[in-house]
Amino acid sequence: MSGAYELRPIGRVESPLTDPADAPRQGDEGAPPSWLVFSPTVAAGLGDLRPGAEVLVLTWLDRARRDVLTVHPRGDRSRPEAGVFSTRSPHRPNPIGLHRVRVLAVDGLRLRVADLEAVDGTPVLDVKPVLGPPDER
Amino acid sequence: MSGAYELRPIGRVESPLTDPADAPRQGDEGAPPSWLVFSPTVAAGLGDLRPGAEVLVLTWLDRARRDVLTVHPRGDRSRPEAGVFSTRSPHRPNPIGLHRVRVLAVDGLRLRVADLEAVDGTPVLDVKPVLGPPDER
């Protein structure tokens, strides 16, 4: 498993959520609308994102721990610990966040999105379309 | 967008697919069964993965280009170029692969999976459960 790879953020989250302890565990559990603010260097890649699109946003959960391999599911200490790869815990060897969100508005290098549970300042790594019928991939 | 982050692979794909040109574009388009072979350092994180589970595998597409911002969708040059964040092209600033697969068998540090379109040797970054009802997260 030698070798490491370098992630370079393409943008950041701007959100009223500032404390990870206040963030909902999933975006459909009450996350407020937030902005994705992209670097001018990736502007050409954003050109076909439209309001109404359902997209997957990949983030780097930079406040997460990377030395965690077992967790109490949903932070509930009354439940037995589970292997982290069977959970959505942010704490994991490569803390990549995966968020399904809806695009509300597009404003140049900024996307307004619903249902994003990431906290303010979280680095954005990638945006991918949700897979639809084969022609839409 | 200053700062970069270091990904450390947790495993590798072992697959009969060796040429990216031969790999299907999506796993449900004819990918053969393959193995995920994990590092002993993450063994404790694998403990609750079971045959039949539907999981998301995140990979690092180490043969992809990172300087691509627009592509012909599905490689079809008769179609107009689209911003890469509206496509599933492997070529993108942070080439993270996202694959929904089914676990066929568990053998220590190895998982046999169906529907994985990644080529042999692809680094594995993370495994996450597909989100089910809230109690299952």
UniProtKB/TrEMBL annotation, chains A, B:
Domain TsaA-like: 7-137
GO biological process, one term: methylation
Location of region: Disordered: 1-34, 72-93
A Pfam family hit: TrmO_N
Domain of life: Bacteria
A GO molecular-function descriptor: methyltransferase activity
Keywords of the record: Methyltransferase, S-adenosyl-L-methionine, Transferase
Database matches in InterPro entries: TrmO-like_N, UPF0066_cons_site, YaeB-like, YaeB-like_sf, YaeB_N_sf
Similarity comment: family membership: Belongs to the tRNA methyltransferase O family.
Record protein name field: tRNA-Thr(GGU) m(6)t(6)A37 methyltransferase TsaA
Source organism of this protein record: Micromonospora coxensis
Classification lineage: Bacteria, Bacillati, Actinomycetota, Actinomycetes, Micromonosporales
